[in-house]
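Bench log, entry 3. Co-assembly request; chain sequences pasted below exactly as received.
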Amino acid sequence: MAGATQTTAGYAAASLALGAGGVALGMSGLGPVFFASSMAPQILGIGGASLSGLVWLMQTIPPKPKQIVFPGIRLLYNILATDTQSSSIPFWQKALRCSIAMSAFLFAADPRLEQETALQNSVGPVLVVVDNDWQSAKDWNLIRQRIEGVLESAGRQGRSVMVMPTTREQDQEIKPGPLQSAAEARTALPGLGPKPWPADRAGALKALETIQGGASVVWFSNGQDDPRLVPFLEKLEGIGPVSVFKNNPADAAHILSVKPGEELGAIVRRLNPGPQESVLVAATGAKGEIISQIEAVFPEGESSAEAVFDLPPELRRQIVKLSLPDEAHAGAALLLDESWRKRPVGILKGSGQGSLLEDSTYIKPAIAPFTNLRAGSVDEILKDAASAVVMTDEAILDEEERRKLGQWIDKGGMVIRFAGPRLAAQPNDSLSAVPLVPGENYTNGALSGNKAASLSEFANDSPFAGLKVPKDLEIRTRVLSESNIAGAAQVWAEFEDGAPFVTAKKQGDGWVVLVHTAANLEWSNLPLADELFIDMMKAMVGRSKSASAQVELTKPLPPLNILDAQGRLGAAQKGSIKLTREDVKNGTVGPFSPPGFYGQDSVARLAHNLHRAVAEYKPAPELSSSVKAFGYKEDQGPDNFKGILLALGMALILADLLARMKQSNVLPGVRFTSKPEVSI
Amino acid sequence: MSTIIHLLEEAEDVFGRVTPDMEMEVDKVHQSTNAAGQRLMRKAGTGIDLFGPREFEEGRDERKHINPRLSAKRDMDIIVDREVESPHRYGIHVDSSPSMDYKSDGVRFSPKQVSIIIALALAQDLAKQEEAVGVLSHGQFYRGGKRAHHRMADTLSDVTIMGGEDFPDIHGVFKPGNTVIALSDFLSDNDGRLVEFLDDLAERHLQTYLVMVADPDVLRFEFKGNNEFKGPEGERSLSGEASKVFEKTEAVRNLYLTNLRVRVAWLQELCAARGFHFVLHPTDHPAEHAVHFLKEGQDNPLSLVPEVSP
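Structure output for the full assembly:
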């Protein structure tokens, strides 16, 4: 009796010890394993205490005997059962059943493997610095998971957290968040999202100056180099031990930039000049429909690739955006305004319509390849946006038309006018760059030795600078300007005798340009001097303003549509967002001037793109050895053991079931079958 | 004639239901025991001349059986074995009670299967020598030809279906000197019926062989741990116990083996007292051993039961 009491007391003591051990395990975890359930201490405490009771039960209650149908039963009748010793459940089966119970309790306690090692071997508050700039949008879900992992880890370690983004918001400068619990920081995390503009490293550096005391720093970096990166990192290291999460450069975002020139296309830049790589570039319309897509191929070791679209004008006119379909961030979208399109140029219809010798006969083929050319009256041409209007001597305008044309010039339009008999007869025409001397001037007259005039070399400040004058160019007839035109107009080209050949007068925001000879072959062979004529026309049209350029930038432009962090074009919130002359000049892209369309309407609008603010796109230099570096995409393996524990528990239950079936003689392969195995 | 053909066809069909491994075993036993020129068993009665003269053996042969012509020719005493002219009848009984189905792990055949193999091998051998073989309870004997053991299989099938676990009635079937071979585990409760059966055989002057076919578990009883033993036929002890529970079975092994040795010794003595032969055959031994012991006798069947360990 005394022994039984002692045994019971022993089990009770073991229960208490195991229960206490379970509570301690639930609170502290086991090495890198922690318990996610808030009830883990209680669950494991009860589990530990009940294990001892389970062992006691198995010790006390004998197992069910194994059933054996035995032909020699008659030889056992006279053997007394008391001849045998008492037995209990075998040790291995006790261990098996205890393991089943332990698996169940552990499953309920939800053990997990501590995967975030960024905070290992450090103590105290945690400063989480997040580069939530345009690049982060590409892998934001991944970055956010990693941020949450660090916050969870900090929470488990009972450490307070301060979160600081490195991009500016409209309403405030960059500043560290409040020092708060990890749980509170997690609650506020949805408010931290990627922005469609670059990180403000200088602003962030300034914000770091305000942090008092030390902290473990976890920096979720964009991996991009920056002039202020070194002092920024030095400041972080001054605060405490630094762990840096960053993307593999090969996984970094690509960014689209404007491709200079007439061709419709873009330059795609990548952070890492690695092996050859292909990137798909799509041209999309106003409704987001893909009009065309091509591959831009980065040669090995190159950090940029070109994507050029060869599209007919009808399609080209519909494109409002180039984008990288496989990436979703502001850098993967390049908005196109009217400046990307071929300049719309009109030719005023003359009185000799249909005539083979019409002046515009030579102009049309010369300028058609690089303009969107159309012919018509003043009203017809100005009805749609036009950059320049070509006016030959055959065009006769009434007063109303002249007034409309003058207003259009004042707003930035350009009239390119060719001389002719009519102009020579009306030297005081208002649509002339300079006052003219009445009458035609024949350069090949007797006074000039019957030799037609030619042009002198173009001046360096001329729009035609660099163009070659063909030797066989002959300008036989011209109109002469009055002798004193200084200050009234610019001379873009002149004859060898010093008389002006092309004069240009600024009128309002526009220009009136006069070519002092006719656009036909009667006065000169200029229209047949192919290269010079085409290049001169190209240079003059090039001086005209596009529809976008005609947008007033004298005052800040309101937003029409702006890009979000994922590179999607959406409605703009009016108010503080505006595009200023300084923004365009300095390439500022930020909370007050995010990438998007600015202006008054869909034609007279400016595209403001992110690439203006990302002049250099190259990877950050190697971090110092004191900084622990982690990749966003590092494989962390399974973070919880619930599946494993469930499978283990089921397997153990199955094993116990099979063992019991075997012991009860009900498994296949039993020793006795009542049915004869032979049928004969 | 058509009836015979039908019977033969039916027998063939039944024999086809013997599992191939059993059939192979029958052939193997038959081959290994069928030595050329030897008869399976010695038989009583006057015989016929055989083409097998041999030298006279003092004590074994009678002098009156010396063949003077052959002796003079060879200048030595020559004996020619004589056999009865009438066919000798062999009645074989296979116990088909449920206990014969018990088969321990690692053993190929149950006692019943082994008994059938032995019976068919004997039938095949005897029929080849123009002897008449039949199932004891069935009353039909088959003689000669390769098909005898097929017919035997047919009959055994009937016996099994009809429930031939009890000892059969042999009135009017045998003549004195005929042979009865009974294959069973001899673990039935009804020992009185066994003694009665043996007495009946003895009265009819029949040569009798009891072959105890036992599973190794029955002979060695190597169970361990907590077990509840029940009889295969719902047996009950005298005190009404339907089962025996031993929490540590290994502890009762010696007691069991003692009981088994007593039982085997009793069976052996039962046979010896009536001039019968007793053979103990464990099912994990080759079946030809049993056939061999039937011919030559088994010296000490008890040696196959493990000794009681100290």
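Confidence is low (pLDDT under 50) at residues 1-17, 34-47, 159-163 of chain B. Chain B touches chain A through 58 residues (CB under 8 Å).
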